[in-house]
Amino acid sequence: MIARTWHAQAVPEKADAYAAHFTSSVVPSLQGLAGHRGALLLRREVDGRIEFLAMTLWESRASIEAFAGKDISRTHVEPEGRAALSSFDDFADHYDVAFTSVDAAGKCP
Predict the structure, then answer these.
(1) Is pLDDT above 90 for 65?
(2) Rg, C-alpha atoms of the chain
(3) 20-60 tens-digit pLDDT
(4) What residues pair up with 77 in beta bridges, in sequence order?
């Protein structure tokens, strides 16, 4: 399994709007893609701003390529997401998942 990560920031007043966009638009669009295995959106406050770390899980690099194109490090941020964010990375990082205690249903044993 491959974890695809991406960072962004929002002002506190717009952070909930980005979280809502992620859960109501981004996640549903990913769920129908072959090889997609799940998503997480992590959030924390840092120096008066909200930082997000989005992580999507994929069966393989080939499944990410089918979604993102040949250069899997490139990202696409929809206009609604851009409107809620103050800054964001234009690249994604990829990690081989070495271990997880979360099963396919999202539960820890």
Answers:
(1) yes
(2) 14
(3) 999 999 999 999 899 999 999 999 999 999 999 999 999 99
(4) none
Measure Cα distances from 7 to 41, 62, 100 in Å.
Answer: 10, 22, 21
Q: Are 6 and 53 in contact (CB under 8 A)?
A: yes
d(CA 71, CA 97): 20
Using CA atoms, how far apart are residues 93 and 5, in angstroms rounded to an integer? 5
Side-chain-side CA neighbours of 24 within 13 Å: the count stands at 8
Place of tokens 């994929």: 58
- What is the SS3 assignment for the chain? CEEEEEEEEECHHHHHHHHHHHHHHHHHHHHCCCCEEEEEEEEEEECCEEEEEEEEEECCHHHHHHHHCCCCCECCCCHHHHHHCCEECCECEEEECCCCCCCCCCCCC
End-to-end CA distance of the chain: 19
Q: Which long-range contacts (CB under 8 A, 24 or more apart) does 76-79 make?
A: 77/8, 78/21, 78/25, 78/26
